[in-house]
Design a protein that fits this description.
binds zinc ion; Nucleoside Triphosphate Pyrophosphohydrolase; 6-stranded mixed beta sheet
């Protein structure tokens, strides 16, 4: 769904063959856990094992902790790829060499394929650990489809991992496209700025969510809403849908004072300084779609 010729943002999963049809096969997880060629990505809380590069450090099934929740991530060539998921409050397993790295921190430095795999494992793993009961009747569910669904033995319903759509918007000036509006969130340290973002509400289109979120957080009416690309963001289970939009009247811009405590119009030079690590403005990390949206504008591609 990326515009033609556009670079996919980090975390856009284009590299992994999920081999979804195989999930139907009974006994798939047991079969792959017994196969020494299978590769396992162990997840501990929001961390994955990495080695220099950084690269993910996948292990053989016998090296992974038995107590984990298991699921099928797909195929790397002929080899099956599984995830073994442990909650953050359990002790980190000893996997020998390598270190445990938060996906949030190292995601942007991994290859597209590896970042996609880590995000898939983290998103699915959260759901496996945190949603054991049937939302309709409260009965404990049984995991099926190699980790991709839950069956309720009491009411018969099937449940699937949930994804929450959220829009994220880079706002430029309609009159002066060389100006970019960013906001500073109340939860951030002073000087950190990013695009405006929020969850899509029930029954709302993406376009309506873009207009509403920017009006709420920054006070401006936006026009010329253009879709840029998406990024799965497993904190906790968002799908970030990135947009560019233009503010109709720059002078209307004001922070909502709650979620956004400060907003500011930036010039290209100011953003260039911040990308270079100079000055007192901090921008989003390279792993995020917010970085990609700001970069698009900076490079004149939006
Ligand atoms: Zn039920």
């Amino acid at each position: 769904m990326t515009a033609s010729g556009a670079v996919p943002p980090a975390f856009a999963d284009v590299g992994t063959d999920r081999a979804a049809a195989e999930r139907e096969r009974p006994g798939l997880l047991e079969e792959l856990r017994a196969d020494p060629s299978t590769r396992v990505l162990v997840v501990h809380g929001d961390r994955v094992p990495t080695m220099d590069g950084p690269r993910l450090r996948l292990v053989a099934p016998t090296e992974a902790p038995d107590a984990a929740a298991w699921a099928f991530l797909g195929r790397d060539g002929r080899a099956g790829v599984l995830t073994a998921v442990l909650a953050a409050d359990e002790p980190a397993p000893d996997l020998g060499a390598g270190v445990w790295s938060a996906v949030r921190r190292i995601g942007g430095e991994l290859s597209v394929a590896e970042a996609g795999l880590a995000v898939e494992a983290l998103s699915l793993g959260r759901w496996l650990l945190e949603a054991p009961f049937c939302p309709a009747c409260g009965t404990r569910t049984v995991i099926a489809h190699a980790g991709w669904s839950r069956h309720c033995p009491a009411c018969g319903r099937e449940h699937f991992p949930r994804t929450d759509p959220a829009v994220i918007v880079a706002v430029t000036s309609a009159d002066e496209p060389a100006r970019l509006l960013l906001g500073s969130n109340a939860a951030w340290e002073a000087g950190r700025y990013s695009c405006f973002a929020g969850f899509v509400e029930a029954g709302e289109s993406l376009e309506a969510a873009v207009v509403r979120e920017v009006a709420e957080e920054a006070g401006v009416d936006v026009v010329d809403v253009r879709y840029r690309g998406s990024q799965a963001w497993p904190y906790p289970r968002s799908l970030m849908l990135g947009f560019h939009a233009a503010a109709r009247a720059d002078e209307d811009a004001r922070a909502d004072g709650e979620e956004i405590v400060e907003i500011r119009w930036f010039t290209r030079d100011e953003i260039g300084e911040a990308f270079a690590g100079r000055g007192d403005v901090t921008l989003p990390g390279t792993a995020s779609i917010a970085y990609r949206l700001i970069r698009d504008w900076y490079e004149g591609a939006a």
